[in-house]
Design a protein that fits this description.
Layout (H helix, E strand, L loop, with lengths): L9 H12 L6 E5 L6 H13 L13 H7 L6 E4 L18 H10 L5 H7 L12 H12 L8 E6 L6 H12 L5 E7 L7 H6 L1 E4 L5 H12 L3 H11 L3 H10 L6 H14 L2 H12 L3 H23 L3 H4 L4 H10 L5 H19 L4 H16 L1
Parallel strand pairs: 1-4, 1-5, 2-3, 3-4
Helix pairs in contact: 1-2, 6-7, 9-10, 10-11, 12-13, 12-14, 12-18, 13-18, 14-17, 17-18
The structure holds zinc ion.
C-alpha cells in the first residue's frame, strides 16, 4: 500500500510525510477513526514511506528493495498484530503470526475492509469474537528485542489494539513507555475509548477524517466504473465511509432503485392505491436484507433533505441531493411539513429496527406503506 492509492486525505498525508522529512516521527501513534475512513491503508502507506530507501516528494518510490518487500508484505522490519481466533477445542493461544498468510491475502485484496470481513476470512463467521491474546505480548517483546534487519526502524502495526486483553495491554504499555531503540508503533483503532487510557496518553493521536463525497465518487467511478449519478447516490449513502460505499456497490445492485422505490411509495400512498401498495411492499420484501436496510436509510436521508428544503434554510448549502433527487424533491418538499416529516421518519426508523431484528419483511413493508398513506396527506 502506498499513499497514491489512497483516494483522498491529501492534507493528512502531507503532514505524515512532513513528519518524516523533518525527522520528528513520534514513536507511538494512534490512527483513530472508523475503519471505512482508511486508517489501516494510511498506516500501511506510512510504514512503507518510512522504510523506503529512495523517498519521493509525495510517496515512497515503489521500486527499492524495501518497497518491493512491503508490496509483498514480507518486510522483516514490519510486524503486524491483529485480533485472531482460537481454534475450537484448542487450549493454545493463537498468535497473529499463525494467521500471516491469510492476513497477506486479506490486505492485498483490499485494505478497505472491516474487522468482520477479517473474521470471515479466518473462518469464524458465527462467533465473530476475535482477540489479541496474552501470548501475543511475549511475541511483541521478542520481535522488538531484535535489531532491525534491514531498515532504520522496526515498525509494529497493531490493528484494533482495543481487542487486547488486560494482561497484554499492560505489557504493551510497558514497552511503549520504554521502547527499544528505533521502534515505532502504529496503532489503528476505530474505538480508541476502549484502549487503556495510560496507553492512549503515550500515543500521538492522528485523527482520520471521513473521505469527501467527491473522493468516494471518483473511487467508485474509476474502480467500479459507476456512472456519475450512481456514484453520487452511493457516496451520499456512505457518508465518507469507503467500506460502506464498497459494500453497497458490491453487495447491492438495487441501491440505484432507491429513489424509484421511494417515489413510487409516495405516489401510491398519495393516491391511497392499496392494491399497488401491497405489490410495492412485496417487491421490497423480496430483496435482500442489506438492500432493504439501505432503502430505509436512503429514505430517511431523503426525508431529512426535503425537510431542509421545506424550512428553506441555507437552501443551496445545506441540502445534498443528486440531480434526479433534486428534480423529484422540487415538488415533494412543498408538502413535507416538520410534523409530517417526523411521523414519516418515525415509521421508517421503526421499519429499519424491525428489519434489523429479522422481522417478517412483507408485514414490515406493508405496515410502512399503509402508515405512509395515512400520514402523507
Ligand atoms: Zn522505496
Amino acid at each position: 500500500m502506498n499513499f497514491t492509492r489512497i483516494p483522498g486525505h491529501n492534507e493528512l498525508i502531507k503532514k505524515l510525510i512532513g513528519s518524516v522529512t523533518e525527522g520528528r516521527v513520534s514513536h507511538a501513534q494512534l490512527f483513530a477513526g472508523p475503519e471505512g475512513y482508511g486508517s489501516l491503508a494510511l498506516a500501511l502507506a506510512f510504514a512503507r514511506f518510512i522504510h523506503c530507501e529512495n523517498r519521493q516528494e509525495t510517496d515512497s518510490c515503489n521500486t527499492c528493495k524495501s518497497c518491493v518487500k512491503h508490496e509483498k508484505m514480507i518486510h522483516p522490519d514490519l510486524h503486524y498484530v491483529f485480533p485472531v481466533i482460537r481454534k475450537k477445542n484448542s487450549s493454545d493461544e493463537p498468535l497473529s503470526n499463525d494467521f500471516l498468510p491469510q492476513w497477506r491475502t486479506f490486505i492485498s485484496d483490499s485494505p478497505y475492509r472491516s474487522i468482520n470481513d477479517w473474521y470471515i476470512e479466518i473462518g469464524n463467521e458465527e462467533s465473530g469474537q476475535g482477540m489479541i491474546y496474552t501470548a501475543e505480548s511475549s511475541e511483541i517483546i521478542r520481535k522488538l528485542s531484535l535489531k532491525p534487519y534491514e531498515a532504520n526502524h522496526k515498525i509494529m502495526i497493531i490493528w484494533h489494539p482495543e481487542k487486547m486483553n488486560q494482561t497484554s495491554a499492560n505489557k504493551l504499555l510497558k514497552i511503549i513507555e520504554e521502547p527499544p531503540e528505533n521502534t515505532l508503533f502504529l496503532l489503528v483503532s476505530d474505538e480508541p475509548d476502549k484502549i487503556l487510557p495510560t496507553i492512549l496518553s503515550r500515543c500521538q493521536m492522528v485523527k482520520i477524517p471521513p473521505f469527501s463525497n467527491d473522493e468516494i465518487k471518483s473511487y467508485l467511478r474509476s474502480v467500479y466504473g459507476k456512472t456519475e449519478s450512481e456514484a453520487t447516490e452511493i457516496a451520499l449513502l456512505a457518508r465518507g465511509d469507503l467500506i460502506k460505499a464498497i459494500n453497497i456497490t458490491e453487495k447491492d445492485e438495487s441501491v440505484i432503485n432507491n429513489l424509484e422505490n421511494f417515489r413510487n411509495l409516495m405516489r401510491l400512498a398519495w393516491k391511497r392505491d392499496i392494491l399497488s401498495l401491497i405489490q410495492w411492499a412485496e417487491k421490497l420484501a423480496s430483496s435482500g436484507k442489506e438492500a432493504q436496510k439501505n432503502f430505509l436509510d436512503y429514505s430517511l436521508r431523503l426525508l431529512r433533505e426535503n425537510l431542509m428544503l421545506f424550512l428553506n434554510q441555507l437552501r443551496n448549502e445545506m441540502v445534498f441531493l443528486s440531480e434526479e433527487e433534486a428534480s423529484f424533491s422540487e415538488k415533494f418538499h412543498t408538502f413535507i411539513t416538520p410534523e409530517k416529516c417526523r411521523l414519516l421518519a418515525d415509521e421508517f426508523n421503526l421499519a429499519f429496527q424491525h428489519i434489523e431484528a429479522n422481522g417478517y419483511a412483507r408485514l414490515i413493508f406493508l405496515d410502512l406503506a399503509i402508515k405512509v398513506a395515512r400520514y402523507i396527506r
